[in-house]
Design goal:
alpha/beta, 2 domains, 4-stranded parallel sheet, 18 helices
């Protein structure tokens, strides 16, 4: 146990150089150079060959028994999924769907609003759904019905007319049963067997089976991130959602066992994840560090191996700060996807925390609950993009259109000011349009 514990990274911020501190901020998707060229080859093949290429890459990368004629899930596939899935899992999905729907329905904006900026001058906005969206649900290191719910439910609530789900096939050439159950309960039945860069390309170009979409949402591997970047001129790539990442921020009052438990949550997604426990307490740090191997003993080798790779590699471990102000500063600089605060009074820190995809307060609010059943969306910005991006929401599936209406009296008030500004900027047609409007004749 001691040897395993000592291998877990312990970074003391006071001893790190600027470059070493910056290195802790680096995520997997920061360097996509190894993925760009092969992703482009996949994209080109899907563009030229359509379904045949999608199926071929499913066989190659997912080891799936899939062909071009069986890329779409059938109604029988959905019925079979409901029949085969453990009723307890189905009930948990129903429970989660209800909470997620309630939360996202509260997000939906009013369809139109107006404000009178001057007498007879009206400006407003109308909000309408985007025409089509692809929801990407990863499957490489497990099945994620949670992502199915989190991407499709807000799209349905927004009223998107065409929703397509893309998810990698199972080795048998099917689709995870829980994911199909989640899709139907969310109100979506257009589910297609495609993953990675091929899925992004299929959504961007369209194939005989998979519809072309104007936007794609959902988290994915560096392959997905690379393909989104390469195809950003053909499809809106949505918020940056790459490999999982988290910070557990703990002060001296935190329970080290809970800190250790929750540090492993996002780390178990895969070796490309990032996960840090950030604390000003050496006692909390060392006790959590010693407890982690105990937790490994109670995990399967694959997930334990993923967390071990993360916590002993360049993107994970324990960060020791001189005080909580420094711990908060590091956390804000990192701008994590998931941020959990472990403290006797977690609300004391809320006002200081500026950049995070989500903030989960207190030991009764582990990331697990946020990922599955609280209601807020678990598709969150990664790679430090929480500084300027928000969680996936109903608004990601909608667009705003400005609307204006001006009466004759209102126009007379606006015209001289508009004419002055048009003349200043050198736009003669602009100025003429508000100078000669009432003159008769051509």
């Amino acid at each position: 146990m001691a040897a395993d514990a000592s291998a877990i990274n312990l970074f003391d911020l006071a001893t790190l150089s600027v470059d070493q501190r910056q290195a802790l901020m680096t995520r997997t998707e920061a360097d996509l150079s190894a993925y760009i060229e092969p992703s482009q080859a996949i994209i080109d093949a899907v563009r030229d060959e359509g379904d045949e290429a999608v199926a071929r890459f499913g066989r190659k990368f997912d080891n799936a028994d899939v062909d071009a004629e069986s890329l779409k899930a059938t109604s029988d596939d959905f019925d079979r999924a409901f029949a085969e899935l453990d009723p307890e899992v189905t009930e948990a999905i129903r429970f989660a769907v209800a909470n997620i729907r309630t939360f996202h329905e509260a997000q939906k904006p009013e369809s139109m609003w107006w404000v009178e900026t001057r007498d007879g001058v009206f400006g407003g906005e109308r909000t309408t759904p985007v025409p089509s969206v692809a929801c990407y649900v990863p499957r490489g290191k497990g099945a994620f019905p949670s992502v199915m719910m989190m991407t499709t439910i807000p799209a349905v609530i927004a009223g998107v007319p065409e929703i397509a789900v893309l998810t990698p096939p199972t080795p048998e050439g099917g689709i995870d049963a829980a994911s199909l159950v989640a899709a139907r309960l969310a109100g979506v039945e257009n589910v297609y067997k495609s993953g990675g860069a091929a899925a992004v390309a299929a959504a961007a170009f369209g194939t005989a089976t998979i519809p072309r979409c104007c936007k794609i949402v959902g988290p994915g591997s560096p392959w997905v991130v690379a393909a989104k970047k390469l195809l950003s001129d053909r499809i809106d790539p949505g918020l940056p959602a790459g490999p999982s990442e988290s910070i557990v921020l703990a002060d001296s009052s935190a329970n080290p066992k809970i800190a250790a438990l929750d540090l492993l949550i996002e780390a178990e997604h895969g070796p490309d994840s990032s996960a840090f426990l950030v604390t000003d307490s050496i006692d909390v740090a060392e006790a959590a560090r010693q407890h982690i191997p105990v937790l490994w003993d109670n995990m399967g080798e694959q997930r334990a191996g993923f967390t071990r790779d993360v916590l002993t590699g360049p993107r994970g471990g324990i960060v020791l700060a001189a005080n909580m102000d420094e711990a908060v500063r590091f956390t804000n600089d990192y701008a994590p996807e998931h941020l959990e605060v472990l403290a006797e009074e977690p609300m004391d820190y809320l006002g200081q925390l500026q950049h995070a995809g989500e903030i989960l307060l207190g030991e009764n609010t582990p990331i697990t609950l946020g990922n599955f059943v609280i209601g807020p969306n678990c598709v969150l910005p990664t790679g430090g993009h929480a500084r300027s991006w928000s969680p996936l929401s109903v608004l990601d599936f909608m667009k705003r259109t400005s609307i204006a209406y001006v009466t004759r009296r209102g126009r007379e008030v606006l015209e001289p000011h508009a004419r002055t500004l048009a003349a200043y900027e050198g736009f003669e047609a602009h100025a003429n349009a508000v100078s000669d409007r009432d003159k008769k004749g051509a």
